[in-house]
Amino acid sequence: MIDTEHPDIPDWTHVYSGKVRDIYVPASVGTLEGADRILMVASDRISAYDHVLASEIPDKGVVLTGLTLWWFDQLADVIGNHVTSTEVPAEVAGRGMVCRPLDMFPIECVARGYLTGSGLADYRRTGAVCGVRLPAGLGESDKLEPAIFTPATKAQIGDHDENIGFDRAAEIVGAAEAEELRDVTLRIYTRAEEIARERGIILADTKFEFGRGPGGTILLADEVLTPDSSRFWDAAAYAPGRVQVSFDKQFVRDWLTSEASGWDKDSGDAPPELPAEIIEKTRARYVEAFERITGETFPL
C-alpha cells in the first residue's frame, strides 16, 4: 500500500491504495474482511520505473475506468467480470466501479501477440519467452502466431513483476487452474486483438487479473485492456524491426531517461516532477486511445 491522497467518500471507508487505484469498503463494515462489495477508484496517478510520480495526468483515471467498462461489455460472452454497479458517489463519478470481492489468483496473466519489451530480451537470451520456445530469427515487434501465454508474479509496490514459466505458475495456483487461466487469457486476447484491429489499433500484449467469485467461477477483475495494462500500437504506422510508438506513458518514460530530467533511474532517488508539456502529451495519448478504441468522444 502506498501513502497517497485519496478522496473522502461518505458511507465508504478507504482501505487500500495501489499505484493507481484506491479501494473503499462500506463504512458499516470498515475492512475488506466481510465486505460484500468494494468501491474501486482509478486515480490520475502515474507510475514509471517502479515509482509513483509526484505529477498526475489529468483525466487518466476516467480513461482507465471508461475503457475497462467498455471492454467488459465487449467480452461479456467470453467471461464475466467483478463489476456489480457503475452507480458511484459523485466524488468519484466517471472513475469508480462497485465490484464484488474476489479470491484473486496471485499471478498476472499475460498474453503476447508480438515480440517486444521483456519478452524480446528473454528471447534473445534463451530463444524462448517464459519457457515458450519460439522460431529462430525473430526480431523487434515481430508478430507471434499464435499468441503466447507468459505469466508473471505480482510484485509489491516498488518491485518488478517477475516473468515466470507455465510450470512455475502451475506450482503457484495449481495445474488445472493454470491451464484454465492460460486458455481464458488467450481467448480474451484473441477477441480483443480482433476488436482493436478493426479500429486501427494493434494489441501487442496485455495482462489480466482473475479471481474466483461465488461458486468458484473465474471472473475478470481490476482494469482491462487499458494503456496502463496493455501495449497498443497504431496499425497504420506499424513496421517490424523497430520499436513502435505506444498509446501509453511513453512520453513520461522517455523524458525521465533523458538528460533534460537530470534523473538517474538507478539512483534510488524519487523521480522529478513532470513538465507541463509531458503531462499534456501523455493525457492526449490516453484520450486518443480511448476515442479510437471505443469510437466515442471523450468527455471534456
TrEMBL record:
Residues 15-267 form the SAICAR synthetase/ADE2 N-terminal domain. The keyword Ligase applies. Gene3D superfamilies: ATP-grasp fold, B domain (3.30.470.20), Phosphorylase Kinase, domain 1 (3.30.200.20). It catalyses: 5-amino-1-(5-phospho-D-ribosyl)imidazole-4-carboxylate + L-aspartate + ATP = (2S)-2-[5-amino-1-(5-phospho-beta-D-ribosyl)imidazole-4-carboxamido]succinate + ADP + phosphate + 2 H(+). Pathway: Purine metabolism; IMP biosynthesis via de novo pathway; 5-amino-1-(5-phospho-D-ribosyl)imidazole-4-carboxamide from 5-amino-1-(5-phospho-D-ribosyl)imidazole-4-carboxylate: step 1/2. Belongs to the SAICAR synthetase family. This is Phosphoribosylaminoimidazole-succinocarboxamide synthase. The gene is purC.
